Amino acid sequence: MMVARDLAVAWAAFVLFSLLFACASQGSRPPHPDLAAVWRSYRELPAVRALAVAGDPGRDRWVAGASGGHASRSDAEAQALVECGKRRAARRLRAACVLYAVDDEIVWPGR
Fold first, then answer.
1. What separation, in Å, do the N-terminal and C-terminal C-alpha atoms of the chain show?
2. What share of the chain has pLDDT > 70, as a percent?
3. Among 26, 32, 54, 66, which has the minimal tally of Cβ within 10 Å of its Cβ?
4. Distance between CA atoms of 80 and 88, rounded to whole angstroms?
5. What is the domain extent for residue 10?
6. Cα(51)–Cα(38) distance, rounded to whole angstroms?
């Protein structure tokens, strides 16, 4: 009888941790595979940071701009968009710069 109860408790704990892991992983997506090098550099920036992308990382024509070490999220976002805009203009891309990530959260709607 004791073994059955211990097994039931272990099973309940496994199910609970599985659900918690599934819920937690829903909010964080992995970065786009073509952004791997950019993502590594971005993650080395001090918090509060942001990353913006213009174009489609799945194609050859895209640029990114990142910024970190800001006092506020809005400052990081604005500076990342400025950096992306400079690269976008240099490459003459028509696509607008869009935020890809803020701190460790991917916010890009194209993913």
1. 50
2. 72
3. 26
4. 12
5. 1-29
6. 9
Residue type for 35, please? L
Residues 66 and 37 reside in one and the same domain: yes
Q: What is the arithmetic mean of pLDDT over 16-22?
A: 31
* Residue 111 domain flag: no
pTM: predicted TM-score of the whole model, two decimal places: 0.70
Cα–Cα distance for residue pair 13/32, rounded to 1 Å: 33
CA 57, distance to chain mean position in Å, is: 14
Radius of gyration of the chain (CA): 20
Supply the pLDDT for residue 58: 75
